[in-house]
What we know:
Elements: H1 5-13, H2 23-31, H3 35-40, E1 57-60, H4 71-84, E2 92-96, H5 109-121, E3 126-131, E4 151-156, E5 164-167
Parallel strand pairs: 1-2, 2-3, 3-4
Antiparallel strand pairs: 4-5
Amino acid sequence: MPETGKRREASASDKDRISALPDALLLHTLSLLPSNDAVRTCVLARRWQYLWRYSPSLQLIHDSKSRFRDADHFNKFVSHLIVLRDRSPLVQCKIDLYPYEELEEYPYVQAVQMWIHYALACQVQVLNVTDDCGQQRLLLNVPFISRHLTILEHLHQHEKKRKRKTHFWE
Length: 170
């Protein structure tokens, strides 16, 4: 069916209204998304290509909807993300480790420690780490030294009711 004059005029005036929003609002919106979804927005438009790198929040999580097939795939994504992301300040960093039920030690401890160091270098204010390492607890050897960190939360998946939250105030 050929387009009428009004329809052609309307489609020509359709613009990307979301990209017209201020950066602060777009960054806030990106901060609400899991990081893998925030990165995917880079294909929406030229303006979005690098915007995810400045998000004030990292949501390093996996769930049933995520595209990660296994812990190694998740680990590689997060490691690449922190190499490519700008070191702009972080308000929050949530790290939800991929489930690992083996009896041996969690194989990605060094990677997780690197992610935490990165968050601290980005002046993170709230850091949440959730592990699902079976019955054993993930032991991190990271000095949590930061004048910016105000809340540190480590939740073991088997202790959902009991959160370990530490508040830091100057």
